[in-house]
Amino acid sequence: MTVELFVLRHGETTWNREGRMQGHLNAPLTELGVEQAVTQRNIMAEQDLSGFCVLSSPSGRAVETAAIALGPLVTEITTDTDLREVGVGEWTGRLRAELIDPTEWQVTADGVLELYDMAPGGEGLAGLEARCARFLARLEGPHVLVTHGITSRMIRALALGHGPNVTLATLSEMPGGQGVVYHVKDGQQKRLS
């Protein structure tokens, strides 16, 4: 994978704040989420985006983040369903604390990653990896991507050569968070903040 990427995660939502599993459903950005998108705009304003295509997940939280963070900087933002968050099936909308005892699991900036693989009727991490691998294989030229926490981790892991069969350990070691931008180029990842 040699395509240059800037990868942004949407800003905090009301469901993020409550600790809910969002998956393909949407929740609005909080005031902090809007501030995080403005921070991303300030980061991206320092980048030369000439020749970059901008793609966003079609989820409202990602589209709103893309509009705030990139709308003033680019002429076109296109949505792509492959950038949606991993589907969490029957656990969509559920509080993470209802599902597991978080003290028994490794908690990352994006929650307990095992939940995304265990969700009944969900996409699972293998399904997410297959979707993200297909997505990356069709990219030509440099791209800015606005996506979600787990999808961002998977895309970056694959772009850095950790596939096929990206492990939970690899995803857990991948940095996450909101209000930051990850730059992936030439097999290296740099967090911009």
What would you say this structure looks like, in words?
The protein has a six-stranded mixed sheet, sandwiched between helices. The protein contains eight helices and six strands; from the N terminus they run βααβαβαααβααββ. The protein has helices at residues 14-18, 31-45, 60-70, 96-99, 114-118, 124-138, 149-159, 168-173, and strands at residues 5-9, 53-56, 78-79, 143-147, 181-185, 188-192. Strand 2 (53-56), helix 3 (60-70) and strand 3 (78-79) form a beta-alpha-beta unit. The chain is of the alpha/beta class and 193 residues long. Helix 2 packs across helix 3 (60-70) and helix 6 crosses helix 7. The model has no long low-confidence stretch (mean pLDDT 94). It has one domain (5-192): Phosphoglycerate mutase-like (Rossmann fold), CATH 3.40.50. It is globular and about 45 Å long. Helix content is 37%, strand content 13%. The longest helix is centred in the N-terminal third of the chain and has 15 residues, at 31-45.
CATH superfamily: Phosphoglycerate mutase-like
How many domains is the backbone divided into? 1
What is the CATH level 1 assignment?
Alpha Beta
CATH architecture: 3-Layer(aba) Sandwich
* Low-pLDDT segments, ≥5 res: none
Q: State the order of secondary-structure elements, H for helix, E for strand.
A: EHHEHEHHHEHHEE
User: What is the helix content?
Assistant: 25-40%
Number of helices: 8
User: How would you state the average pLDDT, rounded?
Assistant: 94
Our estimate of the beta-strand percent is 5-15%
Briefly note the CATH topology name: Rossmann fold
Number of strands: 6
Radius of gyration: 15 Å
Q: How far apart, in Å, are the first and last alpha carbons?
A: 24 Å
Main sheet properties: 6 strands, mixed
Which descriptor suits the 3D outline? Answer: globular
Q: How would you classify the helix and strand content by structural class?
A: alpha/beta
Q: How are the strands of the biggest sheet laid out side by side?
A: 3-2-4-1-5-6
GO molecular function, one term: phosphatase activity
EC number: 3.1.3.-
Keywords: Hydrolase
InterPro entries: His_Pase_superF_clade-1, His_PPase_superfam, PG/BPGM_mutase_AS, PGM_Phosphatase
